[in-house]
Design a protein that fits this description.
Layout: E1 2-13, E2 16-27, E3 34-46, E4 49-54, E5 59-75, E6 86-93, E7 99-106, E8 117-120, E9 128-140, E10 143-150, E11 153-160, E12 165-170, E13 181-189, E14 192-200
Parallel strand pairs: 5-14, 7-11, 7-12
Antiparallel strand pairs: 1-2, 3-4, 3-13, 4-5, 5-12, 6-7, 6-9, 8-9, 9-10, 10-11, 13-14
Amino acid sequence: MIKNILSALLIGVSGISAAVVIAAPIQAEESKADHINVRGSILSYSGSTLEVKTREGETLSVTLADGWQVSSVAKADVTDIKPGVFVGIASLPKEGGGDGALEVLIFPPALKGMGEGSYGWDLKPNSSMTNATVADAVKDVDGRTVTVSYHGKEKKISIPDGTPIVTFGPATKDDLVADAVVFIPAEKTADGAIAHQLVVGKDGVVPPM
């Protein structure tokens, strides 16, 4: 069956090594672990343990596995969504047809093509995540509509004004402070969850995915 997880890569960002986490589907014939996406804010961080208040209001203990990596998100602009750019867009179907973006992640050039495809996502009920290359971007009175291509297919997604648009940035364990917003792909365990990577909000920009 298809499992949606986040795969970690180590790349250079403006000459600085940063852990970058990207949405990517993988295939697994059978999985003994339940993959979960943890969204919430940090209650505390000590050693290899994060206590997180999830968006559902629960307190979850997340164990950070050996070699764990962290990245941040930095604000980007709708004008950065240009033909040829590789993006990850969470979206919802619109009543009149097509999809409307919930958020846009602009990948660094080194990650172009990673996790390419369109698949179910859990940001909101019935939402999807599309990792694809921008074929064209047209500005109109309601914002911007982009046509993205992946595996020979095309999809049109409107990006209303005010949609969060981000890219990846560097972060360290020092950014894991109380109240910082986090997005953590993890495996559910009997007493919490275990994670190999996470994205943390920094400088007022929070992970929108």
